[in-house]
Amino acid sequence: MILICYGTRPEHIKISPLLKEMEGIIPYKTLFTGQHTDLVKNINFDHILTIKDGKNRLDSVVQSCLNLEDSIFEGITHILVQGDTVSAYSLALAAFHRGIKVIHLEAGLRTYDFQNPYPEEAYRQMISRISDINLCPTELNENNLVVEGVLGESVVVGNTVLDNLVDIKTTYSDKVLVTMHRRENHINMADWFEAINQLAMDNPELKFEIPLHPNPNVKKHKDLLTHVNVVSPFDYDVMIKEISKCRFLISDSGGIQEESSFLNKKVIVCRKITERPESVGKHSFMCREPKDLKGLFYSLKDNYEVDLECPYGDGRSSERIVNYLKEKIYGNSSS
Predict the structure, then answer these.
(1) pTM of the predicted protein model
(2) Residue 108 pLDDT > 70
């Protein structure tokens, strides 16, 4: 039996289509690790982790994962973790300590810069060293693992987040959708917001909108956005509809690179480096400093439509994963 672990909204979004595909085919249990507690009201799970807070939040998550009750692991042959969170790394390590095989969903993404993003880049590299099965979104991700000489097996399956989007239609409006939250941008978030607000002032024919991230390091700069429509964070389904209808995006999100490319939207990526370079220059355009935003914005303002194949998958990743795991773990058996 597989223990599938998740505790953040992005993890839940990417694991949900896989859970649906596995139902009745591959036996599993779920462990909710509890970082985003508002999910509790909307999901079902078999086990829940109680994080005992200490002086350092990351240390607290690691300690809580490593000290899980042994009963949670009874009958478990594999643990599946998604992405690059501290809980994903910690539970992979807990499985390794117990001789349980590790499946890494969304394996092989790399920037090779431990500060961008911090601490996620380190976590995903460490997970790769102890994973038995690496489910890679792209060939580039798989090649990263080959070059690193990881010992586990790898397979290219696409990104499961796109399985949520197969029936979404794309249109283009006069809205520029903005999201900003990334930890490495906190130090100059005011500069980013001022640059975005200036563009909104200079282009009144466009509607700038930002669902404001609740992090205090983001919220404290809210008053700089005098010409941007500041709204509460969207539920996932609403966010996808907003992406599908906007003209283009300004964002420091990694996942939005995947979703926007599948929906044929361009996105200005406000980061120094990305672990998703496959779409750069096609759907995604890197903006490393706030001073560079103006030029990129005007290059896309009237050149926003795009019709290219998404490099991150085709919306059938969960089906591909289930077929692979069924063969790999059960030898074609469905039980």
Answers:
(1) 0.93
(2) yes
